[in-house]
Amino acid sequence: MTQLIYIGGSHRTVGKTFIARGIITALRDKTIVGAWKPVDTGHIIYNANDVSTDAELLYHASRMTEHQNLVNPYMLNENYPPVLAAQRDGVEIKMDVLENYRKMLQERYPILITEGLSGLCLPITKTHTELDVIRQWATSILWITDIGESSLAETLAQLKIMKHEELPVKGIILNNWNNCDHADLLHYQWLTLEQQTSLRVWGMIPRMTEPAQDENIANWIQSYLEKGILNTLIK
Predict the structure, then answer these.
(1) C-alpha distances out from residue 45 to 51, 80, 133, 186, Å
(2) Three-state SS across the chain?
(3) How large is the greatest C-alpha to C-alpha distance in the chain, in angstroms?
(4) Along the 235 residues of the chain, how does pLDDT read in single tens digits?
(5) Which of 18, 67, 114, 159 is 20 to 30 Å from 36 at the Cα level?
(6) Residues of 20-29 as b/e, b for ≥16 C-beta within 10 angstroms?
(7) Contact between 174 and 139 (Cβ < 8 Å)
(8) For residues 176 and 204, is the Cβ–Cβ distance under 8 A?
């Protein structure tokens, strides 16, 4: 069965793309893996900072041969909520277009790693929220969060929604990208997430010290996750 693994996060800049790159690269040696970023915003900012878009990073990590537009059908210019950003670009994000792209990719790739937007209730089209998209497409979900009170609160609230919806959340990854060294806080957040959600925290990833190349990211992530846990995504 073709699997769509959704990588979501408590908010922007939580590290979804970083984690997704590592997972794609780690799984690529075991199976055929595709990448998908249905909607992204902030193309102007990407260009101004001369950095790759999230979709470009995922595309290169997966080593896909299709045109990059298949990976990211909607790349919107301004860093606004997707529906507003689309309006300002003079386009409309359409669910049937996204559905066609998803079908094309899943016909070619048994595993499709999909990076979502931030916020379950955020409208992604005029008629669908991010939660609607996950409900329709995701066969498994990994949730990324960073360290801190607001991140913990956001994560607990969003995971509560997904539990109520009976969505297939596989686990949680803590991304300690700012290298918080408050031992009590780190322990408390890990324990609270597991106790309040009945989900497993797969591990805590510190800020990477190696060059940010795909293989380095994959090795780094796997060294801090529970051994062999990523293999459960393809079983």
Answers:
(1) 9, 11, 26, 32
(2) CCEEEEEEECCCCCCHHHHHHHHHHHHHCCCCEEEECCEECCHHHHHHCCCCCHHHHHHHHHCCCCCHHHHCCEECCCCCCHHHHHHHHCCCCCHHHHHHHHHHHHHHCCEEEEEEEECCCCECCCCCEHHHHHHHHCCEEEEEECCCHHHHHHHHHHHHHHHHCCCCEEEEEEEECCCCCCHHHHHHHHHHHHHHHCCCEEEEEECCCCCCCHHHHHHHHHHHECCCHHHHHHC
(3) 49
(4) 679 999 999 888 899 999 999 999 999 989 999 999 999 999 999 999 999 999 999 999 999 999 889 999 999 999 999 999 999 999 999 999 999 999 999 999 999 999 998 889 999 999 999 999 999 999 999 999 999 999 999 999 999 999 999 999 999 999 999 999 999 999 999 999 999 999 999 999 999 988 889 999 999 999 999 999 999 998 7
(5) 159
(6) bbbbbbbbbe
(7) no
(8) yes
- Where do we find the tokens 């929220």? 129
Tokens of 52: 């790759």
Structure tokens at 49: 């900072």
Q: State the burial class of residue 172 (Cβ atoms within 10 Å of its Cβ: 0-12, 13-18, 19+).
A: buried
Cα dihedral 40, 210, 201, 187 sign: negative
Q: Are 206 and 224 in contact (CB under 8 A)?
A: yes
